Amino acid sequence: MAIVYSNVTVSLTKQTSVPIVEMVQGDTGRGLDVFVSDDIITDQVAYTDDSLTATLWATKPSGLMVSMDATSVSRFQNSNAYEIKFSDPEIFQQIIAEVGIVKCQINVLMSGEFVTSVPIKINVIENMATAFYLESKEEFRNAIELMAKQREYIRVLEDYISQFQEQLKLTVNVRYGTSDPTVLSTDKQGDIYIKYKE
Fold first, then answer.
1. Cα 38 to Cα 18: distance, rounded to the nearest angstrom
2. What is the CATH number of the domain that holds 25?
3. Are residues 63 and 76 in the same domain?
4. CA of residue 157 relative to chain centroid, distance
5. Cα separation of 173 and 32, whole Å?
6. Which residues in 154-177 are b (16+ Cβ under 10 Å) and which e?
7. Less packed terminus of the chain by CB within 10 Å, N or C?
């Protein structure tokens, strides 16, 4: 399927309010189309500039950082305004893997010099379809397998307990008399003989 782009405008020079884009957790067809400018509105035509590169730097809610190079960088004639597209599906899926706020900045690089945009945020919201799929398919199967293993462990444990209880059963024969004990053919280990004086 085609990449679904979210559009956002971000400044190179000042931050009045942080732009926020909403995306759904774990989507594999997401992209970001960013208009970056020095706050000059232009009606010039944009053209792809192969001498320009751009990188998106993202910090996920957990603190993990991910970077992604731009798919294309276009420059508007006679201005410091750029249209930058980010659409690497695998890396983008990593960026929006966690629910919460992802903080992003964009570096635009040309001839060894770079400028960095003010921050933007991606609000990653829960993907109910994915959560339901995992619960009803993968997690459910895993739970069934885990319960089967637990039942087997319980069966083995109960068998050990039964054997142990059998070993604990001890029948003791007690004999007594005034003479020293003598071993009889009916004696077994654990039998007791009590000698007493008249």
1. 15
2. 2.60.40.3350
3. yes
4. 34
5. 87
6. eeeeeeeeeeeeeeeeeeeeeeee
7. C
